[in-house]
Every structure is written in structure tokens, then in C-alpha cells.
Amino acid sequence: MNSVSPRAATVRRDRWFAAAVFLLAWFAYGAALGGDCVFDDVHSVAANPALRAPVDWWRLCGDPGAFSAGTSRMYRPVLLLSFAGNLALCGEVWALKAGNVLLHALVAVFAFGWLRGLRVPGPGGFAAAALFAVHPLASEAVNLVSARSELLLVLGLLVGLRSHLAWLRGGSPVPAVAGMVGGALLACGSKETGVALPALVFAQAWVERPGRWDLARAGRALRTVLPALAVVVAYLVLRKLLLGQATVSLLDRAGGDPLSGHGRTLATQLATMGLLLPRGLLQMAVPAGLSLDPPVSFRHTFADPLVLAGWAGTLGLTVAGLWPGRFARARRLCVGFAWATALPWVVVPLNQPLAEHRLYGPLLGALAAAAPWSVRLLRALRALPARPAACVRPAFALLVLGFAAGAGLRSLDYRDERRLWQAELDARPMSWRAWWGLGTAHLRAGDATAGLAPIARAHELYPEHFDVLRNYAEALVRLPAASAQPVRALAVTGEFLRRAPRDPWARALHADAHLQVGRETGQARWFAEAERIALSCLEVGEPKGLVYRMAAAARRGAGDPEGALAHLDASIARGLAPTGVRLDRAELLRDLGRAAEARRELLRAQRDAPLDPAVQQALRQWAAPGR
Questions:
Q1: I need a surface site. Which of 179, 381, 384, 435 has the fewest CB within 10 A?
Q2: pTM of the predicted model, to two decimals?
């Protein structure tokens, strides 16, 4: 009878462990496929024209403006390429969510392989990877499509570290270098935190070769870092060329508005983290109170006892992870991984000081650092006379199932963004971000009436926030005619224009508010001003058919249909003939008694956009018998 060697048995067991980790990730987060696009998902993915066919793949690689449908500029080409590729395969939301779940499962499997490469025993590595795969604290990173940057970042770091580890263990340098370069490209191209890979690689070289270090030995270690370092340097150079800065400045923050990243000083940022970091560490152990908008209590000085206690506890756990002892090398490297993925948002003041998806990498590092301790605990239990170790496996299985159930229930919350934000408001009624999220969710659903009050409340709680003000103005001009509030719309759009005088969209909204006042009062001066403001958009932005439609609406409101028709003809003459322009022109021609021309215009609109709801409605109106 053929006997199986211990090494072959270990390899086979590790394969089963890896397969189990992969399946556990899908078991815990399969419910994410029923979710919807939420918050940043909309402008970054769903409404981002750069990701829709036909895709300009080179633009995704070199244009920071392709990152968002709004004004955000970030250089994350790998992330954009992954979105575009995902959408090319299937444009449904569930497919985007499935891509996130798949990446999460791969991260968990690669984490298990990395821990085994660091000589963490199989059961300990499996325990860490399995808990990570089902941990509810990862729910935001998995369920938010826009948070895929975290998944790709951590996957890239793990690919680079595993390739480097194989090189250190005597593997062929060619595939190792290729893996390190690929991991660095994946990490840096997904999120700026990827620049930490060379430091992690050097730390891995350090802990893998214990003993006395001299210059020669340090030089050999540095040579193994060079492939990742070259990618990072090239990435930073590209950032400098494309964005004007390679990194962020920390010392020129003016302060005064801690809710804004630029309005928060470095001292306020670090002091506030003294309260937020312990909260994140606690949720790694007990994942309760998960929130899209975690509560933040800003602190401005380290003289605060709570700040000192929070930092003392965080640093104390760090020292415990770095303490000498069995498996110290693996523990120290995992602690370094946790800090490397956390330090950028700990130090850099961002608009949202704490977001759960940013805890994805630190969560993996913390669980991986605890893996060796779990092995020691199991061995200690087995040595006891009562042999309580018999209860360890059932207890671990219950913990995994409990975490998986929590992750699944949290994923179900993402089925309806409005319910998600309402749950946040039920917990914290003073959250301006939750009011804003609820209002914008109603706007995207086409219900401006329901969205107005929440956005107005968000603006009341945080009047300085520019995007809230913009959405407030949009909600007011989108109200149905029966519930329009012209005076209020005029005031809010005027404030938006004052804060963004050269923004074409601000001018368009203000012009729309003038149209509302003109229809309410019937005074020609409001229509004339609406026409002037609308046409002024051509001075500060690219010409669009919407500008000519608004100018035509102003002329029509003033009783000049021929002048309105001239504006629409000018739009078409410039090659700006979207469906709305065609439909407006058909309606004008019909009112002017030029029925044959109007019908031809309508048929032209039907040919260009046969499934457009506005086109279908216009066709039904034309087909209806006269009264």
C-alpha cells in the first residue's frame, strides 16, 4: 500500500483549507449580490461615463478625471480598468457586486497562503483566514462597489509579499520579480496606500533573516526590494505629472472646520484618532454598531485623557504584537501590515475620518497577527487534564457561523439605499451625512419631493458642505410644477452660484430657478434673465444642448416661440442634438402649426432613442385622439 509522505499530506490539507476559506467568503457575502449602488458607487461607477461603452481604455490609464462623474480627480487606473472590464462582461449591479465578493475571497485565500509561507501552522492560518473571510467588519469593503480599491490594494500587497517570500526561500528570481512588479502595479494602481509595499517587503526580508545585520546583508535585502520600489517611484512620478503632487501635504492645514479634511489640522487629526482607533480595534473583536457614517467626536489636543488612553491602548497592543517569542517574526510582519494599510488614513486628514472599508487591510493584519497566538492557545488547552480542546472546534465553528450570519444580514441592508440611510438616522438623528445620503437616494430614484426635506436638513446641519448645497439646489429645481418653490429655489441656487461662479452647472440651476419664478409671476424680466444666465454657460464650459433648451424655454415663456425655435436650431447646427432638443423642437413646431415638420422631428428622435421614456411619452401624446 502506497503511503503518503508528511509533506504531501500537509500540501493536501492546505489545499482543503484554502478551498474552505474561498467558499466561506462566498457563503458569508453571497447576499451582497442582491444589493444596490450606494453613495460613492453612483458617481464613481454607475454614472461614470468613462466606464461605459465605448470605453477609451487608454484614458482610464492616464486621465485622473476619468475617476468620477463629478469633479473628483484620482489616479487609480487598475481600479477603473477593473470596473470597465466588469461592466463589459455584464452591466448589472449584481455583477459588480460579484466581482467584489470574488476579490474578497481571493484576498482571504492569498492571506492563508502568505501565513503558511511565514511558517504559521495550518490550523492557525486557517483560523485567521476563515475569520477574515466571514468577518462582518469587511461588509462595507465588499458591498460598496467603489470600495473595491481596498480589495485590490490588499490583494496586490499579498501578491507582492508572497512573490518576495518565494524569492527569499530560494525560488527562481524571474517569477518572483514578475510577481512583485505585478503586485506593486495592482496595489498602487488601485489605491495610493500601495506605496507601502517596498517597506513591507524590506520588513519581510528583515524578519525572515534573523541575526546580526551588516551593510552587505542590508544591501542584499535592499536588492530584493528594488522591483517593488521601481514601480512605486514610477507611480509617484506619474502622480506628480498628472495631479501636480506626488503625495499630500500635512502641515498646511488651516483648521477651523474639522468636518472637512482640509479644515482639520494634523494635531486634530491625530488626537481624534486616539478615540477612533480603539473603536476600530474593538469592532475587530466584536463587530457591533456597523455604520456607513461612524460617529466621530473631534479632539484637538493630546492633553485630553481619552485621547491619551486611546493611543496608549492602541500602542500597547502594537507592542504586544511585536514582543519576542514563538512565531514573533510572523506576528511582527502582520502587525506591520496592519499599520502600513492604516497609517495613510490615520495621518492624512480625510473628509470622513473613519470609514469601515478602510479597516479592511488592518483587519487582515490584526487577525493574521493573532493566528500564532491561537495555535499556542490550542496547544495549551490540549495539555490540560480535562481536555477542553474537544470544545474548541465546535466553538470556532459557531464563531464562524455567527460572523457569517452577521455579514449576510449586513449585506441585505444594501438592497435599498434609502432603507440603509434611514437605519443610520434611526440610530443617530443628527448625522448630516445620513440625511444627505437619504435625500440623494430619493433624488436618484426620481422623487425630488421626498428628497428635498432630508437634503435641506443636511444643509442645515452642515451649511458649509459644497456638495450638499449643490444637491439642495438640484432638488429644488426638480420639484414638480404643482409643488415648485420658486423663491426658495432662487435663493439656494443663487448661493450655489456665489460659491461656484464659474461652474456651468451652478449657472444652469440658477437659470432654471429664474424660469420657475417667471412661470409663477408671468413677468418677462425673469425669462430674460434666465435666458442670459443659461447662455452664459457657454462662456465657462463646453457647449451642451441643455443650455440651448433652457434658453429656448425662456423665450417660449416670454411668448416668443420663434425665438425659442432659433435657439434649438442653433443647438442642432452646432452638432448638439440630444433627444431632449429634438423633442422640444417637435413640440414647438406643433404649437406653431407646422405639424409635418414636427412629426419628422419626432420620428428622428424615435430613430435615435427608441427606448427613451420621453420619446415613448411623446409618441403616445401624438397618437392620442384630439378632444
A1: 384
A2: 0.89
